[in-house]
Design goal:
Largest interface: A-B, 22 and 19 residues
Distance between the termini of chain A: 36 Å
Oligomer: heterodimer
Largest sheet of chain A: 6 strands, mixed
Number of strands of chain B: 11
Structural class of chain B: mainly beta
Number of helices of chain A: 0
Number of helices of chain B: 0
Order of helices and strands of chain A: EEEEEEEEEEE
Radius of gyration of chain B: 13 Å
Shape of chain B: globular
């Protein structure tokens, strides 16, 4: 089992819709959770972080964390074509004391 | 702030050659990370330093890879000899101990192609 799992996609949504990206992790000791956005040919860029159960909102982005289910998600409201990118889920520090990345979900927002 | 700086941005070399990748972390950051990204394996941590000291190099694929951090503003990742399977994008990232846990900032990456 991979330490951080994401559906590779592509996830295709129409412009203006809500995009829902999901991530599960295996290390129950994990304390910090991040979503990075990576445009093609660019470096990962941090867009959201969350540390406690529940929701955290920042503009059009909402991160959701459920530690009991070892599940973290990212919702993007009013999706725009400029949101088209790969979204990387990262988890840490757990037992490994390192940030572990998922392989990413490719999001395509159709105009 | 200039952000994390990496050089070169692109490197094409032949199998067997030595490759040196360079990184300048954000000033004041005391953690530095080297990652490798491929389509097959995603983003993998190779090694990280804290206050210039290597803390965990368990991700370094084999003895052909080595990394150094001689001072707080410079690090190198060396591959000798290089092989075609080393072709990937190599990212350097840094963070500050006092920041929110594990918030890392990435450099632009070095795209390495080994022929």
């Amino acid at each position: 089992q991979k330490e951080v799992e994401q559906n590779s996609g592509p996830l295709s949504v129409p412009e203006g819709a809500i995009a829902s990206l999901n991530c599960t992790y295996s290390d129950r000791g994990s304390q910090s959770f991040f979503w990075y956005r990576q445009y093609s040919g660019k470096s990962p860029e941090l867009i959201m972080s969350i540390y406690s159960n529940g929701d955290k909102e920042d503009g059009r982005f909402t991160a959701q964390l459920n530690k009991a289910s070892q599940y973290v998600s990212l919702l993007i409201r009013d999706s725009q074509p400029s949101d088209s990118a790969t979204y990387l889920c990262a988890v840490g520090p757990g037992a490994t004391n390192k940030l572990i990345f998922g392989t990413g979900t490719l999001l395509a927002v159709q105009p | 702030d200039a952000g994390v700086i990496q050089s070169p941005r692109h490197e094409v070399t032949e199998m067997g050659q030595e490759v040196t990748l360079r990184c300048k972390p954000i000033s004041g950051h005391d953690y530095l990370f080297w990652y490798r990204q491929t389509m097959m394996r995603g983003l993998e941590l190779l090694i990280y330093f804290n206050n210039n000291v290597p803390i965990d190099d368990s991700g370094m694929p084999e003895d052909r890879f080595s990394a150094k951090m001689p001072n707080a503003s410079f690090s190198t990742l060396k591959i000798q000899p290089s092989e075609p399977r080393d072709s990937a994008v190599y990212f350097c990232a840094s963070r500050w101990e006092g920041a929110v846990a594990d918030t890392q900032y990435f450099g632009p990456g070095t795209r390495l192609t080994v022929l």
